[in-house]
Amino acid sequence: MNLTPGQVIHDLRIIEPVAEGPHTILLSGEQMCLHRKVALKVLRPELAAHDTIRQKFRNNGRQMAMLVHPGIVPVYDIVETEETTILVCKLVEGIPVWGLGGKIASLDSLLQSASDILLPLKAAHENGLPHGNLHPGNVLFQKDGSLCLSDFGSDFTGRATGRTETAQAFFPPEQMQLSPQESDIYMVGRILTFLATGNAMATADLMPQLKWLVTTLSGQNPEIHSQTAADALPLLKQCKQVNPSTEKPVLPPADRRRYRRFPTTMRVVVAEQRTNASTAKTLMGKISDISENGAFVPTPAPLSEGSFVRLQFEVDPQKVRLDVVGIVRWIEPGSGMGIQFLQVATADGNALRGLVAQRQLDEIQKLISSSSLHRQIIRFIRLRWGVPLSQTQLLGHLGTSRVLLDRAIHELNEVGLLKSDGDMVTGIYPSDEEVATLVSQI
Questions:
Q1: pTM listed for this prediction
Q2: Angle between helix 402-414 and helix 346-369 axes, rounded to 10 deg
Q3: In the prediction, which pLDDT does 353 show?
Q4: Which CATH number fits the domain that encloses residue 330?
């Protein structure tokens, strides 16, 4: 197929060639009906002759067209000819980051670059689309200083074929047997190493904080294993807490009340100590208290502080299964251990927030319904809100409006009817005697 400047294919006019890869040819062009400059990603005709490869290329374009993120080069259209398939993409005014190797020395700048890569990857992973071909040639440096990703899924003919020797250094070894999403995370670590040193494999030359981050992203940290970009993003904050002498994060003292907020009982489906990415030790069986930040796990044999654990538990009665990675922050001898959540997938985070909101409502209901002084408490809320509500009406409003629930919690905190740390409810409310004293002072 002859692709020359000025040639018209359907509604597309070729302006000039930009680059060539093992699978595609990249051209700049114009979408004539819209007078819009575009990038044309053309599948090589010799590959387009294979129906399977051509269909993969076409499917990949459709998936990319569904992704809307400022860090991903969008696909506008798919054009079919007898010889090949063309993806019509946004023409990005940017340059590949090959020229930035070894030129970014600041940790903050490197972490911003990592964020620029991981955020669009997160959007792609959540839509079931791994990149599959991350290297500096597919990461573009834009005029505003941010990075964006191009060429999603451009390796259509096999995992280790068609790559240049230079780009191959960014891909995980076959023996690691990583999933496509895990491979993306590995490649992010290699790109950061390249930006910092000019050599994708020069991990030993990195500053301690970045070395810990790259080692973790590359699957070589036995304590934390990132399966998707959503798992990897919290690591950017953690790496700033790395102690240069130990090359491990130093966590601030644990605030136990922050993690022991709302009583709950959930069956733990999987509970294991993270020893490396492939092996684990089963530990315990139930969670008794939970918040958006962590949980308390009853066990007569708690792990030592600083141990990493993975918890997979079911939320009754919906049977929603949540999967989190956490760290043991404190021990209560003979009772159990407090675990801070470090990695929570987006969908699990939403379910967790819903669970905590329900527990908040449960605590208010307990306080209003179970206390012998519930009439005084309801009267107090009526006076504060200035509306006449029965107990049934009040609980109904609290159960359907998060705004009203938050307001009720605030009102009860203000006078001490719920114990709290700042505006955070602990889930432990006063005894009837304490309530009596408090209500008598209102």
A1: 0.65
A2: 50
A3: 77
A4: 2.40.10.220
